[in-house]
Specification:
With 446 residues, the protein is of the alpha+beta class. The chain has nine helices and 18 strands. Helices cover 41% and strands 17% of the residues. The strands form four sheets. A seven-stranded antiparallel β-sheet has the order 7-8-18-10-14-15-16, with no helix packed on it. It has a five-stranded antiparallel β-sheet with strand order 9-17-11-12-13, with no helix packed on it. Helix 5 runs antiparallel to helix 7.
């Protein structure tokens, strides 16, 4: 059937364009061509002749309506067959409708396929085979849908993170500007104070010099008067000179004081500019405390609040539980330690519900309180160390990476609460567990 269909298609092709006839016309010699193809051929010649038999004609060709109808029907049938083949309805080899499904070859077959190439094979109905194959695809389809939902969820998560990142960036930028604003304000005030001290010293010493200058001018006037009188006496005749000699002699004995300035008459430059930057930095220490541990807000539980300077942590809602193993809040330090000795102190502010610990890098994502193997805690008045000390206000944590030891102590009494030896070789991170609205504050180094 496929062969006869091909033969029919060849008979319906224009000999000029080799395509299915479009608007066919017929000549007196009975040969047919596409109207456009024939006119195009004749435009290049002086004589109108048939492109196949060269038979000349003077009359215009006639429309071949029957051939046009046949071509349109063939094109439509071909389009339908191609569509059916694409949809798997017709057999690619025989052009017949598929009737069965070959179980052995796992393919659709027509009746001719059965009699020719699929003898002694097992068959089933197309509907049954389709149902079985549909069922086979359900599980992988569900897995794909699950993956699609996972991608949708991830996209939403990433979008949320992008918004959070933008807000976090703006907030951090504002905080940085505020910190520098405080530093600028301090430096401006310190500059003004030091310039004021310089001006005060300059003014006082200037006044002292002016006093001495006035004193010298007074002495100068007095001495000039005495000299003038002495010279006048020397000009008198002998009798008058000798008569006033004793007074003249006393004038010659006039003593002139020697006005002197103190050694520190000039500005003490070294006092004002010597080690100026260092001295300013020393005074800035109250504005620039150093904290041995800084909190990492990206690791905090959702119900925790971190102070802007990342040194204090508070639970936003009361999380005092009968069993903290079931639910807990925590946050890590921003830096992990892999060598050396590290010390930090935490102000508890009279809280009775807290825990402090050290965790390894591989256990940073804690599941419960017990997953932090090295800690000291006080929950609902129950302390993890023995003997139980009186209520403490601070805890000092010493992490000695050389001795592989963690020590928790009361810095006010220097009493060790509890210590741990470990064998880990990983980085170690400070960990904080607040269980109430009373904050845990990391104290600056002294």
């Amino acid at each position: 059937m496929a062969s006869s269909h091909t033969d029919l298609e060849e008979n319906l092709k224009c000999s000029v364009c080799l395509e299915i006839f479009k608007d066919p016309v017929v000549l007196r010699c009975s040969h047919s061509f596409c109207k456009e193809c024939l006119e195009s051929t004749w435009c290049q010649k002086l004589v109108k002749e048939c492109p196949l038999c060269r038979h000349t004609t003077k009359r215009s060709p006639f429309k071949n309506l029957s051939l046009k109808g046949a071509c349109e029907s063939f094109v439509e049938e071909k389009r339908r067959r191609i569509s059916a083949q694409n949809q798997g309805v017709l057999c690619d080899v025989h052009g017949l409708k598929h009737e069965l499904f070959c179980i052995d070859d796992q393919k659709l077959v027509c009746l001719k396929c059965v009699s020719q190439d699929h003898k002694k094979h097992n068959f089933c109905s197309i509907d049954k085979a389709a149902e079985e194959h549909r069922n086979k695809l359900q599980k992988p389809l569900q897995e794909l849908e699950s993956k699609l939902q996972t991608l949708i969820d991830k996209k939403a998560t990433f979008a949320t993170l992008a918004r959070k990142l933008q807000a976090q960036g703006q907030q951090t930028e504002t905080q940085i500007k505020e910190e520098f604003k405080k530093l600028y304000q301090f430096l401006r005030e310190e500059e003004e104070a030091r310039l004021s001290a310089l001006r005060d010293e300059q003014k006082k010493k200037q006044e002292k010099i002016m006093e001495k200058t006035a004193e010298v001018e007074g002495l100068h006037t007095s001495l000039s008067e005495q000299i003038k009188k002495i010279k006048d006496d020397l000009k008198h005749d002998a009798n008058l000179f000798l008569h006033n000699f004793r007074d003249t002699e006393e004038r010659v004995k006039f003593t002139v004081p020697d006005p002197k300035l103190d050694l520190g008459s000039l500005i003490n430059v070294s006092k004002h500019v010597g080690n100026l930057r260092y001295k300013v930095c020393e005074k800035m220490k109250h504005l620039c405390p150093y904290y041995p541990v800084i909190l990492d807000p990206n690791t905090k539980s959702t119900n925790l609040e971190v102070s802007p300077d990342l040194t204090s942590i508070t639970c936003s809602s009361q999380v005092l539980l009968t069993s903290p193993e079931k639910r807990f809040c925590y946050i890590l330090g921003s830096e992990g330690f892999s060598s050396g000795v590290h010390t930090w102190q935490v102000d508890l502010e009279h809280s009775e519900h807290w825990a402090l610990g050290v965790v390894t890098e591989s256990t940073k994502r804690l599941q419960n309180l017990s997953s932090c193997s090295m800690l000291v805690s006080c929950i609902k008045g129950k302390c993890s160390w023995t003997p139980v000390a009186p209520k403490i206000k601070k805890v000092c944590v010493v992490l000695d990476m050389t001795k592989k030891q963690v020590v928790f102590s009361d810095p006010d009494t220097n009493v060790t609460m509890i210590s741990y030896q470990y064998k880990y070789t990983e980085k170690m991170y400070p960990c904080f567990f607040p269980f109430s609205r009373i904050p845990l504050k990391i104290l600056p180094s002294v």
